[in-house]
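RECORD TYPE: inverse folding
INPUT: structure tokens
STRUCTURE:
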């Protein structure tokens, strides 16, 4: 479960890299309303972004000011606002050599996102804070029967799936003196998917267990301290920690029979209750992840000297340490 990254394009949030170690994409969610600035650096970026072989995506969250500012929001999304479903191309349930377009009915879905943010002074002209919280609650309900599945042998199912995400962003900034400034930031995007949905083709057994749930803990904490020693000399210290994980719950421990290609409907010697069409799964999923922990500890100290000699120049020096880990325990619980 370890893959080498050939091209590194770091995703950085408040100074800590949150790139997914396995596939090189963004490993952390963040609400756009909590973002102050997004920097996309394709070349010529400074030494603190060392280690990148592609571009750099650097995100900075909002900070508090001397003025009190806040937002209260509410969003809803549901199937009532969606258009008609598009046809799905599936393999023939009886004849594997044919294909057919089926228009399955829309799932019933509702997603609500209440949220708020608040920023202001802790001590005017000296210290400020910002905090924002926005959860998202999504419920999807799917009804399957011989009519909706366009499958006379289909069972009747009515299952729902619940997805929850908690977006939390908070930081504090302090101007300790005219020359010394610091910032501490925390970002969390914990989420959970609870339940699986039945196959739209109605090929699931009547006693199917849809209770699998998956949790995704995910957070980062970072801080920086900047000191202007003189008009020509600047020092910075920054560090942070990022962690994400995957945990599966309620995964069946039993063999999975999957008619990925083919079916046994045309074999009279097979008992009727064992005859299944193409796409049949005896269990929706037997894949279980006990843990898939990605962690990154980061520290950097640097200095910058500014000078004027036949033009303006700056010389940067320092050290940067990254400790990256991926601890995985996952696989199927039985034979497939």
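DESIGNED SEQUENCE:
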């Amino acid at each position: 479960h370890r893959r080498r990254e050939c091209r590194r394009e770091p995703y950085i949030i408040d100074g800590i890299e949150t790139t997914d170690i396995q596939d090189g994409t963004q490993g952390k969610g963040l609400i756009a309303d909590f973002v102050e600035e997004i920097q996309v650096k394709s070349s010529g970026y400074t030494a603190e972004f060392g280690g990148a072989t592609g571009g750099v995506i650097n995100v900075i969250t909002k900070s508090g000011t001397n003025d009190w500012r806040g937002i209260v929001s509410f969003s809803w999304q549901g199937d009532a606002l969606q258009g008609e479903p598009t046809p799905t191309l599936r393999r023939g349930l009886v004849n594997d050599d044919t294909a057919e377009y089926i228009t399955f009915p829309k799932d019933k879905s509702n997603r609500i996102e209440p949220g708020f943010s608040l920023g202001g002074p802790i001590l005017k002209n000296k210290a400020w804070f910002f905090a924002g919280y926005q959860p998202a609650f999504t419920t999807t309900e799917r009804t399957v029967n011989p009519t909706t599945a366009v499958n006379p042998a289909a069972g009747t199912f009515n299952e729902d799936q619940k997805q929850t995400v908690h977006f939390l962003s908070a930081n504090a900034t302090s101007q300790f003196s005219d020359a010394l400034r610091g910032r501490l930031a925390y970002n969390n995007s914990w989420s959970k998917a609870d339940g699986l949905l039945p196959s739209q083709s109605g090929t699931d057994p009547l006693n199917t267990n849809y209770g699998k749930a998956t949790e995704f803990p995910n957070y980062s904490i970072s801080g920086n301290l900047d000191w202007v020693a003189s008009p020509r000399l600047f020092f910075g210290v920054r560090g942070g920690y990022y962690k994400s994980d995957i945990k599966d719950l309620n995964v069946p421990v039993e063999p999975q029979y999957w008619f990925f290609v083919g079916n046994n409907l045309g074999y009279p010697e097979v008992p009727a209750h064992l005859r299944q069409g193409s796409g049949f799964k005896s269990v929706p999923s037997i894949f279980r992840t006990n843990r898939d922990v990605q962690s990154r500890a980061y520290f950097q100290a640097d200095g910058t000297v500014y000078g004027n000699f036949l033009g303006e120049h700056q010389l940067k020096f320092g050290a940067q340490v990254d400790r990256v880990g991926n601890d995985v325990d996952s696989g199927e619980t039985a034979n497939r």
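NOTES: Residues 1-6 have pLDDT under 50 and may be disordered.
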